[in-house]
User: Fold this.
Amino acid sequence: MASPAQRPLPVVEAFDEKQFYLDEFRGHTLLFAIPAAELVGAAAYEGLAAVVRALLTNDTRVLLVVSCADRSGGEPLLRRLQRRLGPLIFGDETMPLFAPRSARSSAFIELSADAFTTPGAATAVLTSIWAALRRGPLCVGIIAGATHTAATVFAQQLGSRLRVHKLILVEPEGGVTGSDGKPLSFMDETMLETLLAMGQAEWAGLGARRATFDAIRDALLGGVTAVNLCSLAGVARELFTYEGSGTLFTLQDYCTVQRLGVDDYEEVERLIERGQREGLLKLRTPEEVADMLVNGYGATIGAHHLAGICALTTAPYAAERAGEIVGLYTITRFKGERIGTRLVARVLADARDAGLAYVFACTTEERAQGFFERQGFRRVKHHQVPAAKWAAYDPQRKAIVAVFRFDLQTTAG
Assistant:
């Protein structure tokens, strides 16, 4: 008879990161701010058009604001985008979204860089954009005579007034890199305020981008749900993958850890299956996966981004008042954001509240072993955790698995 770890896994649809994000964007509006200088070469146009097509066919509105510093360059830029970007966007799959032929040409409009200097001018530009979006789910606005900073502020003001779901700021430098040279995948309002404190941006080598960070903060405070800062080449990776390519900014706390709810289960099943494919999670039976779901925790970045999962299994070890951390898995993009630490801290807190004597974890991964030691777990022998753990356990795996235990300080009642 096959051991539990050898039984066939449940049939789970392959996890599609792009579709996960598209589901989040559906029914919303995304605003892109792109310097015209970044649109150089066929690859730049094709890459941007591919992102736009994916969003449009996903029932997502797309607003592109393309800026140039030359005050007389608006008309030439408008024609260039119509000629080069238009044919790449309007294809067989997107054409039905722009039923009247005029909707395709009228999607490209010129905007005044001074639109938000007076209430009347702001009303005029907002209504012209809405008129274009009523005809089809795309508006490409051209701003001439605006410096990069002015164009960024324009995008911030536009995003705030329209309360778009997401603002994507495209800059050649891409996302934020810390003083240690490592990219920062995520920043919340507290981290952003620290960066904007007197001298901090300059100390971190980011002084030249202070105006961008000011605009990001103002956009978030103005009602934009999230802001992404990335390069043009990295837009698709930033929007459609967990790996990302830039920095995601939100108002919410950097990370919240909560028990999984039923609406999380389908996504978590796909993440478990992904971790198994990567060899980071052991193969589990459908019953074991179900146990992980109902006893699971999720770490969420911002409002939407599930960054890590784990579960605390206690039922088989009730007699020993023990619990096992299983299925600890952190999404690639957020591996440097201490997601695993937050998950384990929440599990230990709940285990202590539940009166457990200790929590343990088993792993064959060297990196995971180092992680548990850093969280205060000590390596122990197999017999120092419940015998029920090893019932029907694969002998070959048992020979190489490392066991870590965290003793909880409990007071007898």
About this structure: Residues 255-407 form a domain with the Aminopeptidase fold (CATH 3.40.630.30). The chain has two domains: 17-249, 255-407. The chain has 16 helices and 15 strands. The CA atoms of residues 77 and 169 lie 19 Å apart.
